[in-house]
Amino acid sequence: MPREQPQTLFLSYNSGDKDFVRKLAAALSVAGARVWFDEWTIRPGDSIPGEIDKGLSQFDSFALVWSEFASKSRWVKTEMEAAVARWVQNPTQRLIPVRLDNTPLPAILSHIRYVDGIDGNWVRVASELLGIQSEAAFRIAVQQFIDEAGLEFHEFQGVGVLVACPSCGAGPEHLKAWSATDYERDDLYVGARCEVCGWSSGSEM
User: Fold this and answer.
1) Is the pTM higher than 0.70?
2) Which of 38, 111, 140, 181 is deepest in the core (most CB within 10 A)?
3) Does residue 165 sit in the same domain as residue 86?
4) For the residues of 20-83, what is the DSSP string, one character each?
5) Residue 5: pLDDT over 60
């Protein structure tokens, strides 16, 4: 069955929250959303204000990742003000605060229902942003993405399923299984190693 037209989400955040937002962006993407995330969208040589303005002109939902870091960010304030101005012109667009701590929301957004991300659960936050009502529905959305993406999935004992090196992004053709034996303890360890950057991970069998 063809996928519905994907939602476009603009993620506004401060770099102090980038670890959470990077994981959130990935969860949104594999659930079928089109995500504006500066780390993925702005390339070397691009005009940063120009690319942000382009992203702000195209969103279905503006997700304001709010925290103490964000509250002190001039960039976040500028993006929020631009999004509010566009929302006033087009109320079908959605403004959704995502709270990562107890920092009070900006007054102009205080009447809007927010998503609680204080527990750091980016998968649940992604589901709520997309209006996915259950874990089963989220799994179906992810499975549809997998079916359509054409990615190669490889399972490595001691690590799990990988589509790329978690460190440098190299494809699965550059990931090799390894094993090692600790003869003193009579333990066997297995895992995967990246031939490009040297990343390695594994566990005891």
Assistant:
1) yes
2) 38
3) no
4) HHHHHHHHHHHTT-EEE-HHHHPPTTS-HHHHHHHHHTT-SEEEEEESHHHHT-HHHHHHHHHH
5) no
